[in-house]
Specification:
The chain is of the alpha+beta class and about 140 residues long. The chain is built from four helices and six strands. The chain has a six-stranded antiparallel beta sheet with strand order 1-6-5-4-2-3. The longest helix is centred in the C-terminal third of the chain and has 25 residues.
Length: about 140
């Protein structure tokens, strides 16, 4: 999912269905990695040890239930871009696996963007489910 969907409600709903999520956080998201001994701080201002860079760290996101913890990973994509990704899979222990899982997101987003650009389905003004599905299927299958 994109940072736009990485909300408290969405993550808790996914966990309610007993599914695993990998959510990128915006750099200004408030988190706590001290177990409550320090105030919340921006995710991009956290200090990272070498071990934490490889294996992630357990954090609490501001606004979530008191005992709700997630695993945070710092994924360096280039010298210009770093993503902060949280997951409810607490046994996840390698940043490389997180980076690989997040790479699927890019392919899905690319597919949606290209589909809209090449087929013109974003201009479909239909509102009922059936009338939305039929032109979309025809546009993709042709």
């Amino acid at each position: 999912m994109d940072t736009w969907y990485a909300t408290k409600g969405m993550m808790l709903q996914i966990e309610k269905f007993e599914k695993i999520h990998y959510c990128p956080l915006k750099s200004n998201r408030q988190v706590d990695d001290s177990g409550g001994s320090k105030p919340y701080q921006r995710v991009d201002s956290l200090a990272w040890t070498q071990t934490e860079r490889q294996h992630g760290k357990t954090i609490k996101i501001k606004g979530f239930p008191a005992k709700h913890k997630v695993k945070l990973f710092r994924v360096v994509l280039s010298t210009q871009r770093t993503d902060y990704v949280v997951t409810n899979k607490m046994v996840q222990n390698h940043v490389e696996v997180v980076q690989e899982v997040c790479s699927f997101r890019c392919k899905v987003e690319q597919f949606h963007r290209e589909t809209k650009q090449l087929t013109g389905i974003e201009g479909n003004q239909c509102r009922k489910a059936r009338t939305v599905r039929n032109p979309s299927r025809c546009a993709i299958l042709v």
